[in-house]
User: Which sequence fits this backbone?
């Protein structure tokens, strides 16, 4: 190409390129794109990588903005460190998903880690992240402790015995009844994960959509209070309960491991376990359980759906 | 009109009416409008009231969505109750702004309140809220304890001696250098508010934009982590510090006053005082002080601006 | 309402209200609305009436902009006068559709007209036009020569013997397989119209969509050359052929009838019969005939569809 | 890149990439982009090349869609052939602008042409067209009769004596007071062009914006009747007047030169000289003359502006 790579900076409403993100069937966000770095479809998902004025590089998978150069640290610190800090000495870590490499990057910052296995089904995405998203992985793929597998994580778990101190699930939302990711959100899958945890092991996951299943009465309202989106995260362990742990111990671990975090500190991390009353009420009222026979999925409006599969119904 | 008042429900992208909300110069949100109830301009501001599929009635003043029928409780509970609960026995309350009446409604739920004075400069807005926004005020304007004045609150404070136990500032953002609301965000104005507090009095305010002034380095990033918006709220008192109070005492007061809240409980309320590390870092680095001589205002991108006024510069 | 009825004039991209018109599944137009005068649904169609900065009042029925205050004269002159001028002395005129009253207005400008019967199925639309669209009808509904019926025009034609010198079909596009208007675009319906013409009678119609049926190979391209839309109009008569008539005679009739037209003159009118080569080629290749048994309809992309009805197929 | 180059086809309103074209300050068009082939800025203009579902590749320069793969033939046939057919035997042709090569392609289809000189100031655009827009140029750049210069056409004309039988001006609109293209729309520039015509020479140009200058009373209305855009084209010659020529002679020339046109035939071409009454009225009322001392330019709303330059005013 002969042109310089700059378009005139301008406001929304001016001529130019935009990415439209659909938030609900009735609300959408327009992001002005300064430049499109890549767009297309891997075998598993649509992808868009583009530059924006305020957020820098932006990664979209399927229909959702996954993270941006300027604020991915908020998401990835919150996904990784609660689980890693809950465990007194995490040595072997499994990441399911996380193809852009930033989750791996945060895991590797814990100096006691000796192996980090990342399994993402989408080899094309991983290759693209390696080339186009250095701000995310920051070389994590080449760390000698890293091992990258591109295959179905559920299949791998079903056929391997290896165990881990921490498992991080970094998955996209199971939107749509045909979404294959649905099978990574069932009771049986969580059982598989537990079977691969060492004693005292901890699982952490982004779970905006899981909390959401508990909001069937008015899912959108709670998903987007005041039109604004919020994530949810989940921790699970047979042994440890960070929400009842002493923040002073968390602070001590952060210091001991030499973590210089940008978004989290011990006090703030522990405060995140407090949920609003309306959210607690909705969780208490929720009865849906996602299983292999009847996995849940999300509709376009964020509502959770579940239907017994034919085999189950006929079984 | 002869038509029934229904348009076909449909998704964004389908033909129909939309409200475009500008979030930054490079990001905007499209809200599908099922029906427009009112639009126009009072002497002070643009207004739009419309119906949406998921959020019900939506109120826009100038360029920002203020609140919606379905989730205004999150905003108004968070604005009002921390200040009211910080005070052991609030009897006389002043609300500056709050024209739609929901702040007044929440104040009046505290049974010890004997007078609630609301001063909003925009009589046309108050009249419209009375007629079109019953879901917000729920009759609060007609409560015998309510007194509504439509005039400049700063002028009123400068010429009256009356004192209050709690003052709630419920103001729109001072966007634009010419915004008259700028004079309600200066050191001198806060001094005026203090002068009208009884001993032990408490001030509460929505302060998303005030926190924002402390983020000049990267205001948008912190205002909208991950493209998502968050509010900030401020409490001030010479005597009480809710952030260091015992949550059990807060819980006791909630019960004692018979408050049935939807969003807040004591534990969650107290957890809100924890700020993320990046926000605390930004606050610590902030040096801007807004004064009558050099009031700050917000640019379209959310950045704080300040310029010494001519008189001040020449004085 | 207490507010003045003005919002701040501003550009697209600024906060405010927009109407989104869908042109193809991949192209849409955003119209900034200064004010919404009415929106809703009659028994038959969605409607939107709003003010715009450059085009004044705008009328939308179902999903299409029908006409605007500033340029409706282009459409209505072109729909009405070719047929009226083709006939040497039109006395009795039938209008099918045309609820907003501008077609009637143009018909009545021919001084020889003694009766103008307008049949529009949508009484709510007619009532709304009478109240909110005076710029369109300009009092035509109250002309003593006017007669307005609100019922199904096909049913009326099937049960009445009355004959006319000119019939104008002013219908919305039959978009969608379920569109009842489909039955006003079949061979049988045109036969009905012919049966109601006096000897030498003339039919005129807006036929963008009819021409379109002849463009199945690449309908969108021809519908929207260069992304721009164009209308088509059709004239039919057993006796007269305006396309072969002498423009001087047309000019004479315009003068004789005292018509002061804004868009048409004789020369320009006659030039409109010339069609581009690609359009003529497409018309020549077209074989679809719409019938009651297999009426055609338009898809969202403007392509013509036809399917034999079950009864027909089974008959 | 590792991904296949396909995104899921979907409707406007669905998540994905869009190009926003601004038509007036109050109306804009959203074009869904299936894939972005190039975007950036040359030394002279912004450019965007992207794929669309219905129109194929689309070229945008600065803020306007210039042409699309599927319908560029309509524009380029109409720009080139009227001038070429007006001349009985065009041998030497000059094209000013026309960087994408389609105008050159149409010129070269006249077998009598022995030289075609194209002068486009933007070498980066020409290079990009050569690589990315083969559907436009179809090899015309490599025709032995073609000569391509990338420099300022006005400067070239001022310093060269070479004469031509036909000159085609294929320029973008002079939008904005600073637009350098303004100096290619002045009386003096047209004088320069005339000086470079052989006796009997013909100039043809796209002149949507020139006609537009004659519509100051309500430019938008006439530019976009019914919200729809239309082009204008101009022919000028000291000797020939195609509008009064015999269509049969035009048809003879088309046949003689072996031109197989897709959009034009003689009858249709001649019918294009008829202008609507409102346009003729506006042209008759127009008094603005663009000169080097006071060149006109177009505002965002399509209105023509003119201001005497300082030197002129002071001269």
Assistant:
């Amino acid at each position: 190409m002969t042109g310089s790579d700059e378009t005139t900076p301008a406001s929304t409403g001016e001529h130019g390129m935009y990415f439209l993100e659909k938030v609900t069937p009735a609300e959408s966000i327009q992001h002005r794109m300064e430049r499109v770095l890549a767009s297309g479809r891997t075998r598993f998902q649509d992808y868009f990588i583009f530059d924006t004025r305020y957020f820098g590089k932006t990664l979209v998978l399927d229909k959702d903005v996954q993270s941006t150069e300027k604020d991915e640290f908020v998401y990835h610190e919150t996904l990784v460190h609660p689980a890693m800090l809950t465990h007194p000495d995490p040595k072997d870590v499994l990441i399911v998903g996380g193809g852009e490499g930033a989750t791996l990057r945060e895991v590797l910052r814990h100096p006691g880690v000796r192996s980090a296995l990342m399994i993402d089904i989408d080899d094309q995405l991983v290759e693209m992240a390696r080339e186009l998203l250095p701000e995310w992985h920051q070389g994590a793929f080449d760390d000698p402790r890293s091992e990258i597998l591109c295959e179905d994580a559920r299949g791998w778990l079903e056929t391997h015995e290896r165990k881990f101190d921490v498992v991080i699930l970094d998955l996209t939302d199971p939107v749509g009844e045909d979404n294959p990711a649905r099978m990574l959100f069932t009771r049986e899958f969580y059982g598989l994960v537990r079977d691969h945890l060492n004693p005292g092991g901890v699982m952490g996951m982004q779970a905006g959509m899981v909390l959401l299943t508990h909001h069937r009465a008015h899912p959108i309202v709670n998903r987007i209070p005041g039109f604004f989106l919020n994530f949810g995260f989940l921790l699970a362990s047979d042994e440890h309960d960070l929400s009842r742990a002493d923040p002073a111990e968390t602070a001590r671990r952060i210091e001991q491991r030499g973590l210089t975090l940008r978004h989290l500190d011990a006090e703030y991390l522990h405060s995140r376990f407090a949920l609003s009353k309306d959210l607690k009420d909705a969780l208490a009222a929720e009865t849906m359980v996602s299983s292999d026979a009847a996995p849940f999925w999300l509709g376009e409006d964020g509502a959770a759906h579940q239907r017994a599969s034919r085999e189950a119904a006929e079984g």
